[in-house]
Amino acid sequence: MTPTLVRRQRPSSSPSRSRARDWAEIQERMLVPLYEAVHERLDVGPGTRLLSLGCGSGLALLMAAARGASVSGVDTDPRRLELARERLASRPHGAGVTRLGLGGPECVLDPEGRRFNLLTAFEPLHHAGCGLGDLARSLARAAACAERGAAVVLAGWGPQERCSASAALRVAARLGDPMTAVARWRPSGRDDLENLALRAGLRPDGSGRVSCPYGYADMGSAIRGLLSTGAFDAALRAAEEEQVTKELTEALQPYVRTDGTVWMPNVFRYLVARVP
């Protein structure tokens, strides 16, 4: 599926709130093919009790709820979570249970004790040294809230040569504080997702690849969308935003088409693991 090009959006007064809104209105929809592929493969529907780790502004949850799933999500960004609540509040009543929480999976547990049968972590790994031990412990904690045999889906980048976003991520790495873990980006390794799953005590059970091109109506939308991902947070702390924007603009020039749109082909990889 090809994402719709995004029109220029008006900025809000708060940079952090603006980036959360940019994620919801510009960037998050680029991952729709990934969400759809996973939902279809795992037959998400009325019997699904889904927990999304890092649910962001809730687009994947909304898509699962439209298939009849009962959805829950947690995130550490209160601004994105606020947008998720707005989105999910607009769906029809009786379309499945919805729980959203700021923090860990414990804050959205079913009061009747029913465990989740699907966990998703769609946020791709942007870098190495990003606290894989912490990620594994978080996954293990979430898996403890799932039933035995439940599917756990992890997502990451495909091969570097098939991910145009690598050019942008190299800018984030170069400008980020070298003492900050999130600045030490490297291309995704072939077994990164499997290694993370094994460290979390999960059992790998298949994988897939999905084309997720990043398409933007203009350079301004491309810059705002990419800055909203969180991959540039370290760079924005270490350098002026003007410098980050300048270097990111230069890195994106090869992907500008004659009509001014920006088109970046990418392949994402996902892993399906199981709770033992």
From TrEMBL:
The keyword Coiled coil does not apply. Keywords: Methyltransferase, Transferase. Pfam families: Methyltransf_12. Residues 1-21 are annotated as: Disordered. This is Methyltransferase domain-containing protein. It comes from Streptomyces orinoci (Streptoverticillium orinoci). GO terms for molecular function: methyltransferase activity. Residues 51-149 form the Methyltransferase type domain. One of its GO terms (biological process) is methylation.
